[in-house]
Amino acid sequence: MVGIPRAITSPNAQFPAKTRLLLPAPAIATALTLHRMARKAATTVTAASKKAATAASKKAGPTVTAARKKAATAASKKAARTATAASKYWLLKTEPGEWSWSDQASAPGGVGPWDGVRNHQAMNNLRAMRCGDRCLFYHSGAGAASRRVVGVVEVAREWYEGEEGEATAGGAVDVRAVGESQRPVGLGEIKKATGEVEGMKDFALIRQARLPVMPVPVKIWDWICEMGGGFVQDGEVEDETEG
Question: pTM for the full model?
Fold first, then answer.
């Protein structure tokens, strides 16, 4: 009697799933081998991709860090330049009979309020002052000989308004004595330099004689300080042995 294949006698012979049982063993082994090779290849590609991504990240890391440091350094330098550019110079006028350089220098810590200013433009200049700004201390007066720069002060406290009834009620800044000029620089001497120093002819000290507080351009500041021989700071002793 001839044997009947099981797949034909099986009630489920019409389904392809049963027909796979009829594949010869070598064919099944080959299919499994190809399947394993494909999986291995995919795993290898994935590992290689991860390795490449990690390497790229490590390589980019130092570059990004260096770029951030460079940007931070540039920002710091820009801020420093801005702060330097923001520093200003000023000139403050005072009647020596009311508040002289001696009064300023002998005040506690060399600090005193600069108050009593009523000119609107001058008040705006006081409001614009910042701590550390330096000012030429200028003696004004009726006689031409008394009108001169005699020292340098710096802003110790920015604009504030005192209590009602106080001298500072109308607004003031506090200034600190920095040093007395080696020699006073008179108004007449400053006027003669209008053709020598850039911007001198437009300097408010010459153009607006009644303005008590005014900005001083850098070149004019440097010239006045040079003509005054610099200034002796508190506690320093002038060297008289030179020459």
Answer: 0.62
Give start and end residues of each alpha helix (H) in the chain. Answer: 6-9, 16-19, 25-86, 101-106, 120-128, 187-192, 204-207, 218-227
Q: How far apart are CA 86 and CA 133, in angstroms?
A: 9
Q: How far apart are CA 36 and CA 31, in angstroms?
A: 9
- CA distances from residue 157 to 83, 126, 153, 203 in whole angstroms, order as listed: 17, 11, 12, 26
- The values of phi and psi at residue 2, to 5°, are -80, 135
6-15, 42-51, 95-104, 131-140: the lowest-pLDDT one: 6-15
Token pair, residue 167, equals: 């001298």
Name the helix (H) or strand (E) containing 159.
Answer: strand 148-160
CB 66 within 8 A of CB 60: no
Say which residues have a Cβ less than 8 Å from residue 174's Cβ, sequence separation at least 6: 111, 112, 113, 114, 155, 156, 157
Per-residue pLDDT at 126 exceeds 50: yes
